[in-house]
TrEMBL record:
Its main location: cytoplasm. It comes from Thermacetogenium phaeum (strain ATCC BAA-254 / DSM 26808 / PB). Pathway: Amino-acid biosynthesis; L-arginine biosynthesis; N(2)-acetyl-L-ornithine from L-glutamate: step 2/4. Its EC number is 2.7.2.8. GO terms for biological process: L-arginine biosynthetic process via ornithine. The record marks K30, K251 as: Transition state stabilizer. This is Acetylglutamate kinase. InterPro entries: AceGlu_kinase-like_sf, AcgluKinase_fam, ArgB, Asp/Glu/Uridylate_kinase, Glu/AcGlu_kinase, NAGK-C.
Amino acid sequence: MVLTPLEKASILVEALPYIRKFSGQTVVIKYGGRAMISDELERGVITDCILLKLVGIHPVIVHGGGKAIDEMLERLGMKTGFVHGQRITDEKTMEVVEMVLAGKVNKEIVTLINQLGGKGIGLCGKDAGLITARKKTIPAPPGEEPVDLGCVGEVERINPEIIETVKDEGYIPVIAPIGVGDDGRSYNINADYVAGAVAAALKANKLVLLTDVEGIFADRNDPGSLLSVIRVDEVPDLIARGIIAGGMIPKVECCVHALENGVGRTHIIDGRILHSILLEVFTDEGVGTMVVKE
Ligand SMILES: Nc1ncnc2c1ncn2[C@@H]1O[C@H](COP(=O)(O)OP(=O)(O)O)[C@@H](O)[C@H]1O
Ligand SMILES: CC(=O)N[C@@H](CCC(=O)OP(=O)(O)O)C(=O)O
């Protein structure tokens, strides 16, 4: 598609009120999962974050990297399994998870930010006590043995001080979803939950979760059934009826948690679309599904 100069100028003009509205505010972006599928898309996500920063909006990236963990475990000949979408993480697996997320994936994203003209800084939950975690337990259905997920954690508290400090100094914080227990142990936390908790702790204006579908569908077999807005009070019924299922449940739950803790807007958008973050923040139409309080 070739745009005329007038069309190009119109796009920039459309962004103006949004730049004015959001300048100085914080947007937490969950980048991971199946949205982390190509170099081109990764560059798009990072470019969008740098552009936000340059116009005075503060992006905070929380990343996943489940696929990179799978690949490393396979290279090491280690088996992996999931229960309720959570990786069963014994001590040996935890070592690999931490090396891959806080070492490899985090530093790759930071490097790309710096190469593309931004100032990225990598953090994990251990840095400056950012994420305190406790062991996550999944209650067993009646008559069944509870599953021990090992070092899988849930967020106990977020100390946003280090994020505030670095973001105010012009850096883009990039956070790996590794938590630390009061006893110093590492915990593996689903990145969606970390993104929701970080957004809540920062009282972010927006939480944007990138995924591999256009948003939430009322009927997954009907491409015309995308729900552009859902309210928090509609969520339990959508889950109970099986309309929101699988990996979409933690995403919606983390939107609800964020909204109930002071986050302005939450969005689940298609990370397969190049520059989907800019489209969400800077256009009248927005993209994907917005989850709102009322
Ligand atoms: N109502 C729904 N609308 C859209 N996707 C849904 C819905 N319910 C469940 N899903 C599933 O949720 C998936 C996204 O969750 P997940 O695979 O965990 O994402 P990611 O890997 O990006 O973190 C979609 O690919 C889709 O299969
Ligand atoms: C407990 C748990 O399952 N943790 C995830 C952490 C990474 C993650 O969340 O990555 P994505 O966002 O790319 O799926 C895992 O081990 O895969």
